[in-house]
Amino acid sequence: MIGALILRELRRAWTGGGLITPVVFFLLVAVLFPFAVGPDGALLSRVGGGVIWAAALLAALLPVERLVTPDLDSGILDQLTVRRVSVPMVMLAKTAAHWLGFAPALMAAALIAAGLLDLSAVTLARVEAGLAIGTVGLAALAVATGALTAGLRGAGALAGLLMLPLAVPLLIFGAGAVQQGTGALKLLGAVSLLYLAGAPYVAAAAIGAARD
Amino acid sequence: MTLLVLDRVTVARGRRILVEGLSIALEPGDAALVTGPNGVGKSSLIRLCAGLLPPAVGTVEAAPCALADARLALDDELPLERALRFWSGKARTHESMAALRLDHLAAVPVRLLSTGQRQRANLARVVASDAPLWLLDEPANGLDADSTALLGELVAAHRAGGGAVVIATHIPVTLPNAVEVRL
């Protein structure tokens, strides 16, 4: 059941356009910066790693609304519970599927963004390593936020207010790794693991409250 | 083996008590018919049996069950057969689709189905689940006369095979030898 659930989530993410939009949005934010600060190659390559991380955080907000709400509305979460699949397990599967879709798409887009921001090969490698690790935490946060805001009006705006402050540690260590390398990457991994371990239970509690 | 035991159960939604001190026990072959006007708590009672709503007081013990309520729980964009396959194996999906006369709709996307066809798909998911306890919330909604008769036959066959069923409905339904719970 869990395998089928992960495949279903991946299929829905790719076919429903749920992944294309955040990736295009990510690239747009990365394009805006050279326009805003001017075509100064040295400056852009210095702030580029941080710009990519900020863009990644903003792009991670977009899929939040489609992660949990549709399944709560269509009764799929209820049917899974009736079949004795535990809700935290469902949320973990959703996190895994979201990461499997979102991380490669974002990392591919980061290659293009790196060109626009004139990043060196070393910087790019650190950005990509950071994204691979940090998107695990972002995916977990996205699923938990999706569950917390499921069924609320104005869920999208509220999701931003909930998720972005919690994503700040990921941003600090992710962008920090661009300058400092492996030490910050380890801390980024620790934060990601913490979110991955906690988010499914937060999400499950939110689903329980939404059902009442 | 008892398939469903409600022991002095009280169901509350918000601050309102919907059902108080209800006890039911269903053995294989039994059926319960929950009747009453709209908004009286029939659906809440079904959700309680499914384990989706905790009882305010009392205990609920249920065998593995299958639930059909107002929400289809099938992916709208998929053809019917693929959508049902998410919930059950290939052979059982085909058998249940045949049992509900849905074969010819296998390739039609779920979002294009009519109300009655959606309800039959909902019941097909229940049939394919092989769960001993069926929980059906307004199963005859949207069904034509032929399909309603078919529903009666399927429920009878399920009971004859050692299953039990709880049906909540505001429409009079013939369910022989059923425990009647009037809310």
Structural description of this entry:
The complex is a heterodimer of chains A (212) and B (183). The two termini of chain A are 25 Å apart. With 212 residues, chain A is mainly alpha-helical. Chain A has 10 helices and no strands. Helices cover 87% and strands 0% of the residues of chain A. Chain A has one domain. In chain A, helix 2 runs antiparallel to helix 3 and helix 8 packs antiparallel against helix 9. Chain B has 183 residues and is α/β, with parallel strands linked by helices. Chain B folds into 2 domains: 104 residues, 3-Layer(aba) Sandwich (Rossmann fold); 59 residues, no CATH class. Chain B contains 5 helices and 8 strands; from the N terminus they run E-E-E-H-E-E-H-H-H-E-H-E-E. In chain B, the strands form 2 sheets. Chain B has a 5-stranded parallel sheet with strand order 5-6-7-3-8, with helices on both faces. The longest helix of chain B has 16 residues. Chain B is globular, with a radius of gyration of 16 Å. The mean pLDDT of chain B is 92. The interface between A and B is medium-sized, with 17 and 23 residues.
